[in-house]
């Protein structure tokens, strides 16, 4: 099952947005246009659908409350709304459509409320709230059906799809610094040490097979890199990754992850996540810390792993990298452009003139990136 | 009519923009499909991409002659046996875009403080015009782009640069 479309209303800096998704989608936008905010809508769905340590109240509170979540450009007392379309394949009518609207309660300290929740399967409505029960007991409207095991049996498939959404934004500094990493929250999203724990919890056979594959790619991308292995520290029990570099010494030198370069760690994180699990994977700016020539290969790398896997993992990438978008094999239907306006960020597809450029054989970078480039950016150097 | 640009770098892009705007004030300019050096520009041209795009929209392709023998040889080497369609303006700055910059001597001397006498009369015969420019620094491009945007005048420069004169005539022909 794949997410084929997401419709947002009043979500953070998006007043209204419609995003069409493919096997691999690229959210392209300049700095501060809300690329991460858009990814956060997917993480929100994941947080909603958790029966333990999740749910609507938690997911909103975790984001700083409605004040921070609701679009600044929204007028009056409006709902925040998320609608998700899901299908077995793209270009198919949606099998599932889930929609959730919620708003602040009338009283200052009261919990926020579901103002609409519905799910349709192949066009038939399975439920639509508020229903008579909700009217009898308004408390019920403080929770979604998504987070209640008792209520979501008929659409467990959707709950599972949301629950498996993973966000990858590996921060090398956090991963290298154990103390720093522990002070922050380690939950479902591997930013730092959580990533090592994720590797540690993978069955040894699978883990070794994956690391061998990753080793092959790192050998190509990282000079002198030769071997990668998992190692559990016997005295502390802490999981570690170790890499061997070919040196003038005959047997090379083993280094722990805290000595890996930022680029090596980032690439390792991307590769591991692509191999790990089959839910939707959100990747934040994969170009960070990496050589442009390596970045250029990322779209092909994703497509290759998707092709070879039994269950293709849907991938959503945020980027503003020229190198990444100059890969000629990118599926242009997966491109969404984030354009900042005075009325919040708009999500657009390519224009007619950009279509002409793509049709003539130019890359997505050439067709679309000029639009998100700040006007007169060279004047920055005259600061 | 929407124009596309295809230049080597930011400075050439700025020049091309200015030229079209000055010749055809009503024209709108989309984007520059180059700006990553002349190797990529040549590769895209030889892959037929600009030719294909020029069937729908005018494309202004600008490259430096540099040390090639003359403009017709460079054009032939780039286009090979293919002919450029009418809407693909393949223009060559002799020998570098910097010569076009300096060709507006009035604005250039005022901007740089370089004496008028130091600028050769026949700019297109200078082998390496960059050497006459103020010393390169990391903000070299930004400073010169700013100059083009605010002070450079294509008509005035064309009087001292025949290759620019011809480029402007071709732009006028498309409009």
How much of the sequence lies in strands of chain B comes to 5-15%
H/E series of chain A = EEEHHHEEEEHHEHHHHEEEHEHEHEEHH
Q: What's the helix count of chain A?
A: 14
Structural class of chain A: alpha/beta
Q: Return residue spans of chain A where pLDDT drops below 50 for at least 5 consecutive residues.
A: none
Description of the molecule:
The complex is a heterodimer of chains A (383) and B (175). By secondary structure, chain A is α/β, with parallel strands linked by helices. Chain A is 33% helix and 25% strand. In chain A, a hairpin with a 7-residue loop joins strand 10 and strand 11 (253-256). The model of chain A has no long low-confidence stretch (mean pLDDT 90). Chain B has one domain (2-174). Helices cover 47% and strands 13% of the residues of chain B. Chain B has 9 helices and 4 strands. In chain B, helix 1 links the parallel strand 1 and strand 2. The radius of gyration of chain B is 15 Å and the shape is globular. Chain A binds chain B through residues 353, 356-357, 359-362, 366, 370-371, 376, 378-382, and chain B through 2, 4, 10, 30-33, 44, 47-50, 52-53, 56-57, 138-139, 141-143, 145-146, 149.
Short description, anyone?
The complex is a heterodimer of chains A (383) and B (175). Chain A is α/β, with parallel strands linked by helices and 383 residues long.
Q: SSE layout and pairings?
A:
The complex is a heterodimer of chains A (383) and B (175).
Chain A: E1 2-11, E2 14-20, E3 24-29, H1 35-48, H2 56-61, H3 66-69, E4 80-87, E5 96-103, E6 113-121, E7 124-129, H4 132-136, H5 156-163, E8 166-168, H6 172-176, H7 178-183, H8 193-200, H9 204-221, E9 225-232, E10 239-245, E11 253-256, H10 262-275, E12 281-284, H11 292-308, E13 315-319, H12 322-325, E14 335-341, E15 344-348, H13 352-359, H14 364-372
Parallel strand pairs in A: 3-13, 3-14, 8-12, 12-13
Antiparallel strand pairs in A: 1-2, 1-4, 4-5, 5-6, 6-7, 9-10, 10-11, 14-15
Chain B: E1 2-7, H1 10-23, E2 28-32, H2 38-46, H3 49-54, E3 59-64, H4 71-79, E4 88-93, H5 97-103, H6 105-112, H7 140-150, H8 154-158, H9 162-174
Parallel strand pairs in B: 1-2, 1-3, 3-4
Helix pairs in contact in B: 1-7
